[in-house]
Amino acid sequence: MSGATFSGASRYVLDAELAQIVNVSMALEMPLLLKGEPGTGKTMLAHAITESLGMPLLVLNVKSSMKLVEALYQYDTLTRLNDSRFGDSKRDVSDIEAYIKMGKIGQSFTAERRTVLLIDEIDKADTDFQDDMLDVLDQMEFDIIEIDKTIRAKHRPVIIITSNAKKDLSDPFLGRCNFHHIAFPDPKMMRKIIDVHFPGLNGALIDGAIEAFYKLRQLEGIEKRPATRELINWLRALQSDPDFNPKRLKEELPFLGVLFKKSQDFEQASRLAQRRGRY
User: Fold this and answer.
1) Average pLDDT for residues 186-209, to the nearest whole number?
2) 152 and 249 share one domain
3) What pTM did the predictor assign?
C-alpha cells in the first residue's frame, strides 16, 4: 500500500478532521462514507484526493434501477449477435471475453495503477445492491459467470462513497465503512472557500454576498436551499456586471435565478428582495 497522505488540494478547503478520516480510511483500506446535504463538497473530495495523490478517478453514478452487475461488467450480447449475423467484425464471435466490458468497479480492479473510486449517491440504490457491492469491495474480486472467470483487484482502490441521506443505509453497510458527516460551511469557512475560488475579488462584494446568501438560506419554507456551488456561481454573475456596486446588496438581490432553481423558492426569495428594497 502507498504511504501517501492526503492534505488537501488547490481548490478544496479541507478541515483537519476530514483530512484525518480520509487518511485513516486509506490506511485501514476501508471505504469512506460521506453524508451531508447537496453542495457540501462530498463529490469534490474525491476529485481533490485524485489531484493530491496523483491517482486516476473513476466515478460510479448510482441510479435507483441499477443492478450490481452493471457496476462490475457488461456482456455486450447485442454486438456479438450483430457480429455473428453480418460477419464483418474483426472479433472472434466464439470468444465471449471479447464482448465483456468492465463497469466502473471492474475498471478500478483491472487498472494498472491504484485509482480513486467514487461511488456517488449510494442512497439511491436498494439495500441488496449496497450490501452485495460491499461484499465485492471487501473481497476485492468478482466472477464473470459468462466466461467462468474471477477478476481480482490488481490494486485496492481508494473508495469514497457519498450519500445525500435521503434514505437510511443498512446496518451491515454502515458497519463496513468509515463515516464522516460534512456539515454545511459556516460563514467563516465559506469565506475561505470563496477566497480559494476568487483570489483578489473585491472584499466588500464577497462580504455582502455571503451575508445575503446565509439570510436567503434561512428563509422559511425553502425546499432546495442554495449550496456552495450556487454561491460561487452567484458571485460570478455579480462580478460579470461591471456596473454593479457591492453596496447595493443591502437593498437588492439580483440574479436570484442563479441561487434558486424551484419556482416556489424563487418567488419567496424575490419577495425578500422586494422588502429589502423598501427599507
Assistant:
1) 92
2) no
3) 0.84
